[in-house]
Amino acid sequence: ECNFTYDGEIHVPSVKLTGLVDGAEQDIALGVGETKEVTLPNGDMIDVTLSLISGNGVVNAGRSTLRLAINGENYALATDGFVDVNVAQNELDIVWGDKTFVHDGSSHLPTLSINGEEVTYTLTNGVAVIEVVMPNGEKVNVTVRLVGGANTTDAGTYTLQLEVDNANYAINSS
User: Fold this and answer.
1) What is the pLDDT of residues 80-112, one digit of tens each?
2) What is the pLDDT of residue 26?
3) DSSP state for residue 16 in the 8-state scheme
4) Which residues have C-beta within 8 Å of that of residue 97, sequence separation ≥ 6?
5) Distance, CA of 33 to CA of 51 (rounded, Å)
6) Most CB within 10 Å of its CB: which of 9, 76, 146, 163?
7) Which long-range contacts does 116-125 make (Cβ < 8 Å, 24+ apart)?
8) pLDDT reading at 62 higher than 90
9) Non-local CB neighbours of 143 within 8 Å, separated by 6+ positions
10) CA distance readout (Å), 44 to 30, 48, 119, 139, 153
11) Cα separation of 4 and 152, whole Å?
12) Predicted local distance difference test score (pLDDT) of residue 172
């Protein structure tokens, strides 16, 4: 089993052939769906294939099963060649500022920081959409939704709900 966190990159486990003639080992760089002809240290040739058996691939958040297979005279895998690759959702770290206000007839919203950067937002009909640019350049929209209303002008308790539009990300809010 291999575990990674989503970053928009391809995540493939490394492949090392061991137990070869004279105790030799060999590393192989192999992409999903790729077959490579490999020359072993003793000169023998084998084909090595890495296939996606199930899942959504090895980029997006989720679980995938890969299978390594070799084809070569006098060589076999010591295991079944299956490996699970788990790509976890990356987290958007969200921190709310002061959430308590004195009623003065004006609308009040807590400040909001996303991944350490304070963002400005205004609710329009109870909703604000904030575009966040992730370190890998990917744009993700975070929606702030006022539950059960359109403004925060009157005295009372209000609930703000957060949603992210990309399944590769999860909200970590405090």
Assistant:
1) 889 999 999 999 999 999 999 998 989 889 999
2) 83
3) E
4) 110, 111, 112, 113
5) 5
6) 146
7) 123/150, 123/151, 123/152, 125/150
8) yes
9) 127, 128, 129, 130, 162, 163, 164, 165
10) 19, 13, 60, 48, 77
11) 41
12) 93
